[in-house]
Specification:
The structure is a single chain. The chain is 25% helix and 29% strand. It contains eight helices and 19 strands. The strands form five sheets. The chain has a seven-stranded antiparallel β-sheet. A four-stranded antiparallel β-sheet has the order 2-3-4-8, with no helix packed on it. A three-stranded antiparallel β-sheet has the order 1-10-9, with no helix packed on it. Strand 9 and strand 10 form a beta hairpin. The chain is of the alpha+beta class. The two termini are 29 Å apart. The chain binds FE2/S2 (inorganic) cluster (FES) and fe (ii) ion (FE2).
Length: 392
């Protein structure tokens, strides 16, 4: 008979074996602000792949940032034929149509070069939504962007972004959210100190809920306790450590009742963060083996110019600096710790660590990811996937 503990251990083990270090590929990911992409190419690395983002005729395109001739970065190139959808490599002049990646000319060999229309460079589907550029990293045909970009984000009337080049791996950050860390780690932040912040969460209950276009793994909790007496140690949290000056809005927002929820390919959603009335999302987009782009998005829903001004004032004076920058920097620090730990243990995180009650949310995330990630939709059974993963 399989007990709940056995099942948890199996999930933990399988996750370690199967989940890609560079992230799930068959999804749309945020890349940068739309305003960062111009006619001049922007060089980025996503999931280990160098990609050049550029505009032609106002539209964003993305192509592999490696010239098929000698590997030079195409982002060093230029548009030699203004008004066309092309980019020309800086080295020998191979010229590519950015809409389909086809080499349409090799300038230094003359208009009748044999490579014309014979060579292509990979292009990536891209879209713009809410002032953000999104890229499809999958090998298969892209799903509609609306399937991956949450509906409430698309409905927001104000969107503000913070991006950070961050040391570590997306898997550690995706397992960071939840009460277990928030009640301890963030106590020392100014953002939390001004609140009346509890110390203990009992009976963590992860639940899948269809909200915000698709299933979200929501964190609920049976009992929140302000403080407790620890025999032989004393009371914790220490009285007076939270100031209780600010009321945190815990009410459901657009039907989302859970304060924190998660979704594939690794999105966190937090209600009323970084200010009351805002809805917050974060993606962890792996760049290379050691870094990811910590992509934070605050959404506001003001309807009038006055509401918008009030929202932005609260965002820029408090929410952004105290919440998204400083409070979330504490998370970054701990993800870096996890990365160093994983490196000391041959890249495996789970083996040497022990779990405790609030980790139910993290185990549920792993279970959810293993069950639902599009990358695993290849017709194989879970067992075959596990075996294939172990053989890798
Ligand atoms: S490397 Fe690009 S044209 Fe030669
Ligand atoms: Fe956190």
């Amino acid at each position: 008979m399989t007990t709940a503990d056995d099942r948890a251990a199996e999930v933990v083990r399988n996750y370690d074996d199967l989940v890609p270090v560079l992230g799930f590929r068959e999804y749309w990911y945020p890349v940068c602000l739309a305003s960062e992409v111009s006619e001049k190419p922007l060089a980025m690395t996503i999931m280990g792949e160098p990609i050049a983002f550029l505009r032609r005729s106002g539209k964003v395109y993305a192509l592999a940032d490696e010239c098929p001739h000698r590997g030079t970065r195409l982002s060093l190139g230029s548009c030699q034929f203004p008004g066309t959808n092309t980019i020309t490599c800086a080295y020998h002049g191979w010229t590519f149509d950015v809409t389909n990646g086809r080499c349409v000319a090799a300038l230094t060999a003359g208009p009748d070069s044999a490579v014309n229309n014979k060579v292509t460079v990979r292009t990536y589907p891209v879209t713009e939504c809410q002032g953000i550029v999104w890229v499809w990293m999958g090998k298969r045909a892209p799903v509609a962007p609306e399937a991956d970009i949450p509906e409430l984000l698309r409905r927001a009337t104000v969107v503000r972004v913070v991006q950070r080049y961050t040391y570590g791996n997306w898997r550690w950050h995706v397992e960071n959210p939840g009460l277990g860390h928030a009640l301890m780690l963030h106590r020392s932040s100014m953002y939390m100190r001004v609140r009346n912040y509890p110390g203990i969460a009992r009976g963590i209950e992860p639940r899948l809920e269809e909200t915000d276009c698709g299933p979200w793994l929501c964190e609920y909790c049976k009992e929140i306790q302000m403080a407790a007496e620890y025999p032989g140690l004393g009371v914790w949290p220490q009285p007076g450590s939270a100031w209780g000056l600010v009321r945190e809005d815990m009410s459901p927002q657009f039907g989302v009742a859970a304060k924190v929820s998660m979704r594939l390919p690794g999105i966190t959603r937090v209600t009323h963060f970084p200010i009351n009335g805002a809805l917050y999302y974060e993606w962890f987009v792996q760049i290379d083996a050691d870094h990811y782009n910590y992509f934070q998005i605050a959404c506001g829903f003001p309807k009038t110019a006055l509401e918008r001004a009030w929202f932005l004032w609260r965002y820029y004076t408090w929410g952004r600096p105290a919440g998204m920058i400083r409070f979330n920097r504490q998370d970054i620090t701990m993800v870096g710790e996890s990365e160093r730990f994983a490196k000391r243990h041959q890249g495996r995180w789970n083996g040497p660590t022990r779990l405790y009650e609030p980790d139910r949310f993290q185990i549920a995330w792993r279970d959810y990811a293993l069950r639902y990630a599009r990358d695993f939709e290849n017709g194989r059974t879970a067992q075959e996937r596990v075996e294939a993963g172990r053989g890798r």
